[in-house]
Amino acid sequence: MMLNHDIDQRHMLLHQWAGAIDQAARLGALSGDRPIVIREIGTIAGPRAGALEFDAGLDSGRLLRALAADDMALTRQFVPWVFVGQPAVYMQGRYVRLEAGWEDALAQKSISVRQLNTRPNGSGRWLCGMNERGRAVVLHLSDLVPHFLVAGTTGSGKSVCLRSMVTQLSQRGDRLVLIDGKFGEGLRNLDHLPGIVGPLAADIDTARAALAWILAEIVKRYATRPTPATPGTWATQGEVKTSRLVVIVDEVQELISDSAIVEMIRRIAAQGRAAQVSIILATQHPTAKAFGDEASIKRNVTGRIALRTADYKASEVAIGQSTPRADWLLGAGDAYVVVPGQVQRIQIAYMEHREIDRLLTSTPALSEWPIFEAESLPSGGAAWPSGDEVGAALLSAQRGEGRVKFQRSLKNAGLSAANDKAVRLLGMGRDALRWLEDKGYIVRPSDDEDTQESSE
After folding, report:
1. Contact assessment for residue 98 and residue 14, using Cβ atoms and an 8 Å cutoff
2. pLDDT, tens digit only, all 456 positions of the chain
3. Taking a C-beta distance cutoff of 8 angstroms, is the pair 419, 402 a contact?
4. Alpha carbon 81 to chain centroid distance?
5. What is the CATH number of the domain that holds 137?
């Protein structure tokens, strides 16, 4: 708990920091040429870092470049406390924002859900943490933000964030499906919370079955129309309305090697919003391969909880843009929450183990998931790949082709695929090639095809 004198000390340090930079800017010491006039400076004492927001008008670009120059070598000299981590400077709205982590004596690393004394009401809501103004941050699965990506490396607080989220959603009347790509390590035992649909899916086969069940549920929900008395809710036979269905997929990077799983996640992200089906994708290693190349997933997953990532590229995927830098966060629950039009730095609120354990009293509605069969997948969205497409992908993989050359090969064969589909098909081809080579088979084009290609 932060004592009053610690809070006063943080504000005093921030005012010292603001005054030093303002004076240096006016004297021309920051940029080495003409002075920079700062019209206004806001001070923000967040839980894990102090921040300044500068309104420099038309000089904002010069101020940003001056503060960022030489790995912020000059800027670091103005911080009046022993900061931890990497200071950061970036544009936020019209302001130049500067951040530096508090030393341990001034930081608020431990904030519980109970401590924030806020109980969100309504489906799809949970208390995520505390923002820089000391206010509770409640996130909401909605038409604007139907899906979330949660990203963070080891020690970032990702598992704590997920377990708190799942536990809170289970108390709102939502139905939940839990999938964990690391054998259930992150979500273990949470399938005994209220509202859980089926057993924890902790391997690829079970994950396929659970995702196929969800797609079938989406089709059922599309087949029903909202009743006039309850607009925006989904009616089914025997029910007044259908509750929100939330799919939590932890360690999704362990599952994306399976093309069927990638396709089902894509369809859930694209089609789930209107059926009140949301998906939360969580990963230690957010990569362009997992999300950036799949434009449909990236476009539809509009909410982000970015904890500390391993590097800049992972940060870009986690945040959805180049700034702020999630790889400069401090770990242990320090996070950026990104929703359309807003970025907040927060400290994730945890739920105590005994609070979660007290709620583990239920049994999933389904004792097992129906067996997955690709042919039973509901139609709609992207078509299941044809044999010709898979064959072309296998040969392109054998030749070591990338996406562009693969698309050219498809065109030569009288086929076509947009960028997203081509990436998925080529992934399938590479998976098939590895399997065949592991079994001792040799894959090569026929002599006729070699001759045809060499003549082109």
Report:
1. no
2. 455 556 689 999 999 999 999 999 999 999 877 899 999 999 999 999 999 999 999 999 999 999 999 999 999 999 999 999 999 999 999 999 999 999 999 999 999 999 999 999 899 999 999 999 999 999 999 999 999 999 999 999 999 999 999 999 999 999 999 999 988 889 999 999 999 999 999 999 999 999 999 999 999 998 885 554 444 454 444 444 678 999 999 999 999 888 889 889 999 999 999 999 999 999 999 987 665 445 667 788 999 999 999 999 999 999 999 999 999 999 999 999 999 999 999 999 999 999 999 999 999 999 999 987 765 665 554 456 677 888 888 888 888 988 888 888 888 887 767 676 787 788 888 888 888 888 888 777 665 444 444 444
3. no
4. 32
5. 3.40.50.300
Write down the pTM of the prediction.
0.81
Q: Is 327 found in the same domain as 444?
A: no
Q: What gap in Å lies between CA 3 and CA 10, rounded to an integer?
A: 11
β-bridge mates for residue 139, sequence order: 126
Residue with structure tokens 């790509």?
A: 181
If asked whether residues 329 and 403 sit together in one domain, one would say no
Asked if 327 and 293 touch (Cβ cutoff 8 Å), the reply is no
Nearest to 45, CA basis, from 91, 87, 89, 11: 11
Between CA 349 and CA 229 the distance in angstroms is: 37
Decide: helix, strand or coil at residue 49. strand
Residue 94 sits in the same domain as residue 121: no
Q: Among 272, 175, 288, 137, which Cα is nearest to 215's?
A: 272
Domain shared by 15 and 74, yes or no: yes
Same domain, 371 and 394: no
Distance, CA of 316 to CA of 309 (rounded, Å): 10
Alpha carbon 152 to chain centroid, angstroms: 9
Reported in sequence order, the residue ranges of 72-124 that DSSP labels E, i.e. its strands, are 84-92, 95-101
- Residues 6+ positions from 73 with CB-CB distance below 8 Å: none
Neighbours of 314 (CB within 10 A): 23
Q: Which domain holds residue 411?
A: 387-455
Q: Is the separation of the CB atoms in 239 and 226 below 8 Å? A: no
243 and 128 together in one domain: yes
| Beta pairing, strands 125-131 & 136-140 | antiparallel
Same domain, 213 and 358: yes
Shared-domain flag, residues 395 and 434? yes
Place of tokens 């989406």: 218
Grouping H, G, I as helix, E, B as strand and the rest as coil, residue 179 is strand
